[in-house]
Amino acid sequence: MADDSKQADVGARYAQALFELAKDQGEVAAVEADLRSLKAMRAESADLRTLIGSPTFDSEQKGKGLAAIAEAARFGATTGKFLGLVAANRRASAIPAMIAAFERLAAEDRGAVSAEVTTALPLSDAQSKALAAALRTALGKDPEIETRVDAAILGGIKVRVGSRLYDASLKSRLDSLKFALKRA
């Protein structure tokens, strides 16, 4: 738990620096697109997850790997240099936290809010639209929704907006009931 917190803190600092640089250069949208692409690559490739997260690769190997990925994916110069810096500073394991923090900063700059939604089953188009409308009403801003399916929550929905988590999952309700029964 503490390790996740450290990664998030490091990720937020690096993301803030990258965001300020990209904003000064007018490249926020391009850098955000590059980072989203890297995020998708990481989700699809076990080898990339291993390269980024494993301590068995040194910073030079990680730098070469990330540079090759940036070149193959035709990332912009700012993103490529950033990934090289992250690898050189031995912070590659925090890249997922950096991407998430950058996405929040970019959404905030556009006047939107980033929301991570977890459901037990994929949402239909009608459910996605209704959820977006409900979040727009509750938050007062346009939500940028990223959905994730996790069968472990059994049913219901979890919505994370910034540091807040709205948990209406069946698993959490059953856990609460179990705790209440144990106290009785």
Explained architecture:
By secondary structure, this protein is of the alpha+beta class. The protein folds into two domains: about 1-105, Orthogonal Bundle (Peroxidase, domain 1), CATH 1.10.520; about 110-184, Glutaredoxin (3-Layer(aba) Sandwich), CATH 3.40.30. About 65% of the residues lie in helices and about 15% in strands. It has a four-stranded mixed sheet, with helices on both faces. α1 (about 1-25) packs antiparallel against α5 (about 75-90) and α1 crosses α6. It is globular, with a radius of gyration of 19 Å.
In terms of topology, how is this protein built?
Layout: H1 2-25, H2 28-44, H3 46-53, H4 59-72, H5 77-88, H6 95-110, E1 112-119, H7 125-139, E2 142-149, E3 156-161, E4 164-169, H8 170-183
Helix pairs in contact: 1-5, 1-6, 2-3, 2-6, 4-5
Q: How much helix, percentage-wise, in residues?
A: 55-70%
Q: Quaternary status of these chains?
A: single chain
User: Unreliable runs, pLDDT <50, ≥5 residues?
Assistant: none
How can the largest sheet be summarized? Answer: 4 strands, mixed
CATH topology of the largest domain: Peroxidase, domain 1
- Following the backbone from N to C, one meets helices and strands in this order, namely HHHHHHEHEEEH
Beta content comes to 15-25%
CATH superfamily descriptor of the largest domain: N-terminal domain of the delta subunit of the F1F0-ATP synthase
Q: Would you tell me the structural class of the helices and strands?
A: alpha+beta
Kindly state the number of beta strands. Answer: 4
Q: Roughly how many Å apart are the termini?
A: 30 Å
Rg result: 19 Å
Could you say how many structural domains there are in total? 2
CATH class of the largest domain: Mainly Alpha
The gross shape turns out to be: globular
Order of strands in the sheet with most strands = 2-1-3-4
